[in-house]
Design goal:
The protein is an alpha/beta fold. The protein is about 45% helix and about 10% strand. It has a six-stranded parallel sheet, with helices on both faces.
């Protein structure tokens, strides 16, 4: 492996276990909104949430629209007509902050690389929740730069997002930085389109299609080995 100065980590499902945290936060928030157990269907919510986030990443909607839209689509799908999607989004984000679940071996990874690299945190997330989640998980201070999409008006994989990342890094260049993430679109495509090397965390061994990640691993522990 060539020498890098900066490791640019995605957060959700790379360092923090968003699947687990979101599941807990969704159930808690929907109970708070008065839905019955029969109406609380995380798989159905996640389907709509994925569609809305894809629209956001592709620049079709803004983050203000994203927040309530995913819950309105969900309420329509389960036939719950009286809940406020804005209030549901607020409740969900509050619960999400309270569930800072980490990926297996993520703390070991950060401890392993911190002495030898500058670390960036590059995340497509909402400003109310991302920094508080990092602090709740006690990983905020590992990073030399943190870029939250909702704070800057650009999201991965957009060029404007990575332009901002490099403005935060100041003293680096493309050849000295590598992106590490699980999302084939926002992380891997974003990195490749920008001219960056990348590590694809691919635990489900999905196909990368026409994209060619620089490295591909199946677990966080494999990332530790990669930067041994």
């Amino acid at each position: 492996m060539k020498k890098y100065d900066w490791l640019l980590f995605d957060n959700d499902n790379t360092l923090m276990n968003f699947h687990s945290a979101s599941h807990s936060a969704f159930h808690g928030s929907m109970q708070e909104m008065g839905l019955s157990e029969e109406q609380i269907d995380y798989i159905e919510y996640n389907k709509h949430n994925h569609i809305v986030w894809s629209e956001f990443e592709n620049g079709l909607i803004d983050a203000l629209t994203l927040r309530p839209k995913r819950f309105q689509l969900y309420f329509d799908a389960v036939g719950h007509k009286y809940s406020d999607p804005i209030a549901a989004n607020t409740a969900y984000l509050n619960h999400l902050i309270q569930h800072p679940h980490m990926m297996d071996d993520a703390y070991d990874l950060l401890d392993h690389v911190k002495p030898n690299y500058k670390l960036g945190l590059i995340t497509n997330g909402l400003k109310e929740v991302q920094r508080p989640r990092l602090k709740a998980a006690k990983i905020y201070d590992y990073f030399d730069a943190i870029v939250v999409s909702d704070e800057i008006g650009h999201a991965k994989p957009q060029k404007g997002y990575f332009d901002h990342v490099f403005s935060e890094m100041k003293d680096s260049d493309l050849s000295k930085a590598i992106v590490i993430g699980d999302s084939l679109n926002s992380d891997i495509k974003g990195a490749i389109d920008y001219g960056l090397d990348c590590v694809w965390l691919n635990p489900d061994q999905k196909s990368s299609g026409n994209l060619q990640p620089t490295y591909e691993v199946e677990s966080v522990k494999d990332i530790i080995k990669l930067f041994a």
